[in-house]
Amino acid sequence: MISADTLLIAFTLVTAINMVRYLTALRSLIFIMREAHPLLYQQVDGRGFFHTNGNMSKQVRLFHYLKNRDYQHHHEPVFISKCGKVRDLFMLSAGLLGLTLLMAFIA
């Protein structure tokens, strides 16, 4: 039988890997956004997005843009596919993080 500690370590490792994948995809989305959608790039503070003094309300703007799937009306297919990938990775990472935290408190 698998111990709870082994499961917790496995969930933590998988969650960490998916968080890195999400942040990497988000960074590449912001890089692509500079050319594909300059207005949105300015609205989400693309240059200062990952800095500690970044504006949280502007970062939430990107979250709502992806959550509402506003990117589907864009004309560039690379931008659309990257937005879809970031959205899917965010949902996966958030679910795994919740499951890992639940496992940590149960075990």
UniProtKB/TrEMBL annotation:
Ranges annotated as spanning the membrane: 6-24, 89-106
Keywords: Cell inner membrane, Cell membrane, Membrane, Transmembrane, Transmembrane helix
Main subcellular localisation: membrane
Pfam families membership: UspB
Location(s) in or outside the cell: Cell inner membrane
Membrane topology: Multi-pass membrane protein
Keyword Cell inner membrane among record annotations: yes
Keyword Transmembrane: yes
Signal sequence segment: none
GO cellular component, one term: plasma membrane
InterPro entries: Universal_stress_protein_B
Top-level taxon of the source organism: Bacteria
Record-stated family: Belongs to the universal stress protein B family.
Protein name in UniProt: Universal stress protein B
Organism of provenance: Vibrio algicola
